[in-house]
Automatic annotation (TrEMBL):
Pfam families: PMR5N. GO terms for molecular function: O-acetyltransferase activity. This is Trichome birefringence-like N-terminal domain-containing protein. The lineage of its organism: Eukaryota, Viridiplantae, Streptophyta, Embryophyta, Tracheophyta. It comes from Aegilops tauschii subsp. strangulata. Residues 10-64 form the Trichome birefringence-like N-terminal domain. InterPro entries: TBL (IPR029962), TBL_N (IPR025846). GO terms for cellular component: Golgi apparatus.
Length: 73
């Protein structure tokens, strides 16, 4: 459990939710340039051409979890 939005006082159950398509804020990084991605999940490194899988983010049910795009710039 954690706060949905800092200072809102709402509690969030992060384990209950859905995958939401978010092409406004994704992808946040390239798998080719990120040293923190393990080889087992380095899709681009091993030839995966499409990056559509990077446009999904977890959205907990009943929580106001804003898109990363709102925090950029």
């Amino acid at each position: 459990m954690g706060e949905a939005v800092r200072g809102s006082g709402e509690e969030c159950n992060w384990s209950v939710g859905r995958w939401a398509y978010d092409n406004a804020s994704q992808p946040l990084y390239s798998g080719l340039n990120c040293s923190f991605i393990f080889d087992e999940v380095a899709c681009e490194k091993y030839g995966r051409n499409d990056t559509r899988y990077q446009y999904w983010r977890w959205q907990p049910d009943g929580c106001d979890l804003p898109s990363v795009a709102k925090f950029r710039n």
